[in-house]
Recover the amino acids of this structure.
């Protein structure tokens, strides 16, 4: 195997400056939109029916007793996060190709923050009016949450799911500084994946707090797998990117099983490995072009709803369950269906009235500043 750029690509220096880089053109892959919603629904079912804790108060008992069959499957829904990370690696590599560091920065800020701020305001407001949603936070804590930097400074999280955004932000920073800044090329992406894999493996046994913060050995394999799968999509079946995918998959199996399975765990380690494998396989099918038939227009809407749905579904969903099931006496299954639909509806409102108008405005403001 060689680091040589595939023959379909011109000299690396041209890739970063050519408006329409070589290889397969960057087009919207609707199947990825569908996969993103699948990953979000996996996490949603985990939060509603696959775990105890706060959600038990909404159902008035452990969800495992309310949904004895569904709960046994939903405990694996937390792996939707790893699924997200594989998709994210693919999408970030695709969307950054041929763009400058400034373009990359503006696109990420405009994509992440408007819906995040809207969700933060909604859940903070709900926490003040309805304390069952989430514990109220002080003004200074809320302001820190606006930055998405609450975790590194030790402030309480308003959104329970925002820990994954902190993981994503660190991935964006690494990729931006080491690949986007000098210019995205096949060789640089391969080298980035290779060095990051080595660093993740070494930090697993000999790392400290700083190493784990930067290298993220627990999550690195999923992003690396997604990056390499985009190289497969763009340049075809080259041995080297497939080898990176295979190695990242093996390391991902280890990380997921180590993190989720232990003696007495409700999860079977072989099922954990199966779910992770299916996540890689689904994105690999997109990379190989096997999902071109999935061109239904509604998949675009599904992809647009995924991010705001992911942000709001947890705490607000628990409150809706509490009202419908404990307050109004609605049976469990209709309550579950109505709650998911309500959160999808709220996600559509955020997309339509926040992301659509304010995302482009924020991007233009950053460009003009």
């Amino acid at each position: 195997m060689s680091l040589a750029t595939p023959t379909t690509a011109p000299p690396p220096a041209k890739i970063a400056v050519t408006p329409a880089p070589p290889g397969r053109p960057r087009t919207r892959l609707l199947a990825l939109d569908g996969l993103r919603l699948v990953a979000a629904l996996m996490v949603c079912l985990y939060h509603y029916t696959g775990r105890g804790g706060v959600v038990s108060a909404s159902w008035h008992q452990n969800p495992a007793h309310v949904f004895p069959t569904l709960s046994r499957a939903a405990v694996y829904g937390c792996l939707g996060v790893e699924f997200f990370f594989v998709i994210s690696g693919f999408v970030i590599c695709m969307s950054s190709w041929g763009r400058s560091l400034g373009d990359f920065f503006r696109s990420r800020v405009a994509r992440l923050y408007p819906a995040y701020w809207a969700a933060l305001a909604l859940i903070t407001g709900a926490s003040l009016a309805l304390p069952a949603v989430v514990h109220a936070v002080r003004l200074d804590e809320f302001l820190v949450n606006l930055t998405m930097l609450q975790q590194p400074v030790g402030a309480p999280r308003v959104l329970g799911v925002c820990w994954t955004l902190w993981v994503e932000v660190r991935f964006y920073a690494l990729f931006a500084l080491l690949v986007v800044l000098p210019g995205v090329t096949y060789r640089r992406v391969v080298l980035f994946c290779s060095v990051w894999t080595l660093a993740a493996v070494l930090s697993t046994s000999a790392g400290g707090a700083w190493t784990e913060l930067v290298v993220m050995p627990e999550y690195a394999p999923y992003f690396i797998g997604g990056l390499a799968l985009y190289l497969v999509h763009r340049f075809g079946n080259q041995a080297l990117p497939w080898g990176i995918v295979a190695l990242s998959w093996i390391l991902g199996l280890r990380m997921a099983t180590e993190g989720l399975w232990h003696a007495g765990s409700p999860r079977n380690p072989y099922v954990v490995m199966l779910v992770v494998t299916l996540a890689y396989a689904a994105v690999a099918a997109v990379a190989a072009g096997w999902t071109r038939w999935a061109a239904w227009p509604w998949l675009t809407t599904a992809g647009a709803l995924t991010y705001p749905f992911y942000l709001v579904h947890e705490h607000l969903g628990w409150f809706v369950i509490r009202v419908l099931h404990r307050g109004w006496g609605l049976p469990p299954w209709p309550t579950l269906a109505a709650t998911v639909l309500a959160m999808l509806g709220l996600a559509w409102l955020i997309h339509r009235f926040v992301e659509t108008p304010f995302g482009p405005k924020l991007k233009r403001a950053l460009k003009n500043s």
